[in-house]
Amino acid sequence: MKLAKIKALVKDLSYLAEEAYNAPFRSAVARARREQDDLFMLLIFSEMMGVPNPASYYTLELQPLMLEKFHDWHLRMGMPHSPLDQFRCC
């Protein structure tokens, strides 16, 4: 019984220490991931915006999967309306 309580306490303290160590870096990691996601979205939709994309053959089938995130992406990139002529999301 006491051993189980000690193990639970050690586990809780370990979790607390890990969170305290990772907390300062959480925003930097989130920002880096957001930047990578933005670049990936640009890569996927670049052909539709008139930018030549050498990987368009591979990214074409990803477009339907990423359309639900497209509106948030173009607003984050500073475009008030969809840059795609054939796709209106606003």
What secondary-structure arrangement, pairings included, does this model have?
Layout: H1 2-45, H2 56-59, H3 63-76
Helix pairs in contact: 1-3
Pfam family, one: DUF7990
Organism: Shewanella algae
Protein name: DNA helicase
Shape: elongated
Per DSSP, the total helix count is 3
Biggest β-sheet, characterized?
Answer: none
Order of secondary-structure elements: HHH
- Tally of structural domains: 1
Q: What is the typical, i.e. mean, pLDDT? A: 83
Properties at a glance:
90 residues, mainly alpha, 0% strand, DUF7990, CC_star_Cory, DNA helicase
Could you walk me through the main structural features you see in this protein, from its secondary elements to its overall organization?
The chain has 90 residues and is mainly α. It has one domain. Helices cover 69% and strands 0% of the residues. Helix 1 (2-45) crosses helix 3 (63-76). The longest helix has 44 residues, at 2-45. The chain is elongated and about 65 Å long.
Question: How would you briefly describe this protein structure?
Answer:
This protein is mostly helical. The chain has one domain. It is built from 3 helices and no strands.
